[in-house]
Design brief:
- The chain is built from twelve helices and no strands.
- By secondary structure, the chain is an all-alpha fold.
- The chain has two domains: 142 residues, no CATH class; 81 residues, no CATH class.
- Helix 3 crosses helix 8.
- The protein is globular.
Length: 236
């Protein structure tokens, strides 16, 4: 498979994720699921045969990876793939920042290159590309009755993705559809914040000496800290 064919297959795979499949589960944030699906596909792609494709290696050498996606790659079985990408990425970083000598190099060009290296990630770039297209499709479908019902049945929209959706929606939806869409996602988010607050408060109360007994009822509070972090950051 050529590098071009590999890139096309990844792109085709991203675009064939049906929006209703993302909305079918009723647990967690649907936009997180969308992002997680894209991340998984991209990480599996880059850790597979695509790692040896010259055009892909040029991109990974340039962009590198962020901490979040390094951790996801480390969980994959093929550590050699990651080591080989690191080998050539480190070589390029050294060449661009320390070994390259240019006679009329613009002032601060290496500092600019350092900032670029520290702010880019191959997986982030691919996920951002896929999210833009999936969210466009999502908004185009959001006025359909079946999609509206699926959206209403979601557990919550996490705070970062609530911000994202409310920021993007005006560019895609007419006034009446926009108002209805905002009502749905605001209701989901407000309801979940209230339930989180109750669970976190109950968790705190369980450390009161009056509740220090073996059969104390923790209710749904034991994982309330983790759920709150997930809601507030979109990440576990």
């Amino acid at each position: 498979m050529s590098g071009e064919d590999g890139h096309f297959k990844m792109r085709e795979s991203i675009l064939t994720i049906p929006v209703n499949a993302v909305l079918e589960p009723k647990e967690g944030c649907p936009v997180c699921r969308m992002r997680d699906m894209l991340e998984q596909r991209t990480v599996e792609y880059i850790m597979g045969a695509a790692m040896m494709e010259p055009d892909v290696r040029i991109e990974t050498n340039r962009a590198g990876f962020c901490h979040t996606h390094f951790l996801q790659m480390l969980k994959q079985k093929n550590r050699l793939s990651l080591a080989l990408m690191l080998q050539t990425h480190l070589e390029e970083v050294d060449r661009e920042l320390f070994s390259r000598k240019k006679l009329f190099e613009p002032k601060n060009s290496r500092k600019a290159k350092l900032s670029e290296i520290n702010s880019t990630c191959f997986v982030c770039e691919k996920v951002e590309w896929g999210m833009e297209r999936l969210l466009r499709t999502f908004f185009e479908m959001s006025s359909r009755d079946d999609i509206k019902e699926l959206l209403k049945e979601q557990e919550y929209i996490c705070l970062p993705h609530y911000d994202l959706l409310t920021s993007l929606a005006p560019a895609y939806l007419q006034k009446s559809a926009l108002d209805n869409f905002n009502r749905i996602i605001s209701a989901l988010t407000k309801k979940y914040i209230a339930s989180l607050y109750d669970d976190v408060s109950h968790y705190c109360s369980m450390y009161d000496y009056r509740n220090a007994k073996k059969d104390a009822d923790w209710g749904n509070s034991k994982d309330s800290i983790e759920r709150s972090v997930k809601f507030l950051t979109s990440r576990n």
